[in-house]
Every structure is written in structure tokens, then in C-alpha cells.
Backbone:
């Protein structure tokens, strides 16, 4: 099957490469000529484990190509995926659908054969209706259908998620388009991946509802962590105890500095705006957004308190080493990363900040120009008055704390991901502060 993937960012590139690996003939399209040139040269625009190798193997096999020309690329394509960005719109928080609608208009102007138009971008309820109207007005009399097919890819594990999904959701109104989408995903039937067909509007809402629910679990356990600190309980024991209940489950019950990334912040906000538009408020999600926003800066205060408790006094003029900057490990994504608010809170009290992240420093540098970026964790901690673990990269899990102790000015460690064992760290002579533990 010939597939056109409009948008070669995170979702489009991963999806396109995986479809090609299934044996489909895929062309990834992007208006950014420099991005397409880099892809032709084998340079990935994002960091995702295994992606460069997957792209290279399918390009060499002749199943995957890249283009800036939408008109020629969608010719004879049976499925045309829209996988462009839908960032929060400035001023009101609604999802910015201008890129989606612009692609729909360009498809309408160039479509010459029957095709299924697949919205892969995360879009509010009703977007598919507007995409269908745009294409119908621009290509009257042509056979086409618009379906919703939301992505459920975790950054850092996207290829595995695509090839071994929990479910494939397709919002389709007719039998023809259902048949085309069944053929698109037929290679996954060997893995018995559930293919769930729904109405188009239900499919659009499923994506937002799923992300809002996961964001709620994260925010809930973070609030339980705060309570654990007050009452002398251990949040990891609490999370394990409730997670063993099959009705709750253990995933997304890891206390930390709050959620960030490309999905949860903008999708919860977009869901709130949709609910407002339909006069059906979602109070729980409202609270989740509010609590998560305040938590990130609160982690900066946690660092300040740890320095004071260790006898270091005020943080002004003190060197603080940050280990990790991205919103999660195995990605270079800095969008809404908790580190941004933490950095600002520490800069506001006059601290000197040095940071190291295995993949995220290039993206982080423009967002935090006052932070000194260095080439290793050990370089970052040298002469530091406090060390803060912000992102739980594997490289930091096995860091030699004795060696670090000899490099720092003061043995103060703030572990915002609960990576280390409190007893072991304290036995090594560190003043240790973590999240939701005594």
C-alpha cells in the first residue's frame, strides 16, 4: 500500500518509518526543506532510540522516502496521514489547528484519486468534520473519507509502542475507509493488537481522555508524596500498595517533579477548552493542570530548603549542579519540562547553575541561557554546593556517589526522581532529600 505521511516530526517520522518497516511504500512530507535535506543525509531531527537505524534500513530497502512536494507525493496514495503539530494556541490555550487545516486545503487542491485522509495529529472533537468540509469543498465529486487515528506513542519507547500497541483506535464512519485502515494495520494482526473502530468524534476524544487520565494519576501520586512527607510515610510503598490493585495498576504512579513533554500539558489544556466550549466542565482535569503547574516551581523551593537544612544557608551565589534537563529520559524533548520552572526558581534566588543532560542540552540552551552546560555529570558536580537529579537517565542511576562526594563542595543531594536508596546515600555522608520519603 502507498502511504503519504504529511509531517516529518516526532509522530510522522516514527509512524512513517514503522509503516515502511511493515512493508508499505511510505513517503514522509515536510515543508521544512532543511529537515528533509538532513533526513536524506541520515540525520534525525529528534532523538529517539532506534529511529536512525530504522529509517536507514527502510530507505536502503526503497520503502521509505522524503519530500517537500505534497502534490506529487500524494499521487496514487491510498492513505494520506496528517501528522503536523497542534501546539497550544497563544492567548487562549486552544489547540492551534492552523497547520492541520492548511494541510487539508493543500490535499484538496492536489487530490486526484480516491484516498482515505487520516488525522494522526492530536486534535479536538469535531476537527475531522472541518477537515472533511475543507476537502469536499476543494475536491467536489472525488471519493475520499476522513478518519481519526490518534497516536499513543511514548517518547523514548515510540518504536516499540507502534509495533506492539495496547490498541489501535480508528474513528471511521463508513465501511470503505474501515477496510482501508484494516489493510494499513494488517501487519500488526500477527501481534493480536486490538483494532478498535469507533465513530470519528469518539476517537478524537479518546486521545484527550487517555492523556488527561494519565496526567491525573501522576498528579495524584505527587500529592500523596507531599502527604507522605508530612506524616512520615514512604510514597514508593504507598504506590506499590495501591498499584497492585488491578483496578488501579502500577503505571504512572512514580512521584516526581510533575509531568511535562509534548502531550500532557497541551492536551489537558485543550480538553479544558473543549469542555468550556460545550459547557461541560471537567473539574478534575482543571485541578490536575493547576496542581501540576505549581508543583514544578515547588521543586525549586525543595532544593532551596535542602541546602538550608544541610547548614548551607541561603542559596545566593552557591553552585547547584543539575543532572538531567529533559522532561523524561531517552528523549531530547524540552517542551514543558519541569527543569524550566526549577531553573527559574533557583535563578530567582541568585543561585549559580551548571547542568548536564545526555541528549537535551542543545534544546535546553536557548530556554535557559543563564545555565552553564557542561560535557559530563562529573564536570557538572565539580565544586557544587548541591546536586539535583532532575531527570532519571540510566547514566545517573549508577553514578559513583563516592567519586561525586570528592568533587563537590558540599554533599547535598536532592533526588527528584527517587532513584537512590536513602540509607545508602546517607551512609556515604550525604544530606539526602527525595520526594515523598522520610
Residues:
Amino acid at each position: 500500500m502507498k502511504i503519504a505521511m504529511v509531517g516529518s516530526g516526532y509522530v510522522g517520522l516514527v509512524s512513517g518509518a514503522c509503516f515502511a518497516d511493515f512493508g508499505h511504500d511510505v513517503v514522509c512530507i515536510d515543508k521544512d526543506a532543511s529537515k528533509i535535506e538532513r533526513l536524506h543525509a541520515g540525520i534525525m531531527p529528534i532523538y529517539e532510540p532506534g529511529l536512525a537505524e530504522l529509517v536507514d534500513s527502510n530507505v536502503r530497502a526503497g520503502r521509505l522516502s522524503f519530500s517537500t512536494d505534497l502534490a506529487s507525493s500524494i499521487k496514487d496514495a491510498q492513505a494520506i496521514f496528517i501528522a503536523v503539530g497542534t501546539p497550544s494556541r497563544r492567548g487562549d490555550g486552544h489547540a492551534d489547528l492552523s497547520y492541520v487545516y492548511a494541510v487539508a486545503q493543500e490535499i484538496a487542491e492536489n487530490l486526484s484519486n480516491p484516498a482515505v485522509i487520516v488525522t494522526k495529529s492530536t486534535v479536538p472533537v469535531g476537527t475531522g468534520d472541518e477537515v472533511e468540509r475543507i476537502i469536499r469543498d476543494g475536491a467536489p465529486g472525488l471519493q475520499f473519507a476522513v478518519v481519526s487515528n490518534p497516536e499513543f506513542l511514548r517518547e523514548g519507547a515510540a518504536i516499540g509502542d507502534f509495533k506492539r500497541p495496547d490498541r489501535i483506535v480508528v474513528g471511521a464512519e463508513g465501511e470503505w475507509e474501515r477496510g482501508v485502515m484494516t489493510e494499513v494495520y494488517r501487519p500488526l494482526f500477527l501481534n493480536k493488537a486490538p483494532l478498535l473502530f469507533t465513530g470519528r468524534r469518539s476517537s478524537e476524544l479518546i486521545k484527550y481522555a487517555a492523556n488527561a487520565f494519565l496526567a491525573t494519576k501522576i498528579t495524584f501520586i505527587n500529592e500523596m508524596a507531599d502527604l507522605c512527607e508530612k506524616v512520615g510515610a514512604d510514597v514508593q510503598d504507598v504506590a506499590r500498595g495501591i498499584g497492585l490493585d488491578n483496578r488501579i495498576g502500577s503505571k504512572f504512579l512514580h512521584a516526581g517533579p510533575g509531568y511535562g513533554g509534548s502531550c500532557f500539558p497541551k492536551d489537558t489544556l485543550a480538553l479544558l477548552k473543549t469542555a468550556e466550549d460545550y459547557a461541560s466542565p471537567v473539574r478534575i482535569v482543571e485541578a490536575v493542570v493547576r496542581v501540576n503547574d505549581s508543583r514544578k516551581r515547588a521543586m525549586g523551593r525543595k532544593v532551596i530548603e535542602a541546602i538550608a537544612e544541610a547548614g548551607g544557608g541561603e542559596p545566593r551565589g552557591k553552585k547547584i549542579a543539575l543532572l538531567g534537563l529533559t522532561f523524561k529520559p531517552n528523549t531530547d524533548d524540552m517542551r514543558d519540562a519541569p527543569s524550566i520552572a526549577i531553573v527559574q526558581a533557583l535563578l530567582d534566588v541568585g543561585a549559580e547553575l551548571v547542568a548536564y543532560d545526555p541528549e537535551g542540552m542543545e534544546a535546553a540552551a536557548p530556554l535557559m541561557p543563564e545555565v552553564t552546560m557542561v560535557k559530563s555529570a562529573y564536570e557538572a558536580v565539580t565544586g557544587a554546593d548541591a546536586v539535583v537529579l532532575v531527570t532519571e537517565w540510566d547514566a545517573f542511576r549508577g553514578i559513583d556517589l563516592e567519586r561525586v562526594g570528592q568533587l563537590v563542595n558540599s554533599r547535598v543531594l536532592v533526588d527528584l526522581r527517587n532513584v537512590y536508596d536513602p540509607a545508602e546515600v546517607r551512609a556515604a555522608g550525604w544530606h539526602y532529600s527525595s520526594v515523598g520519603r522520610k
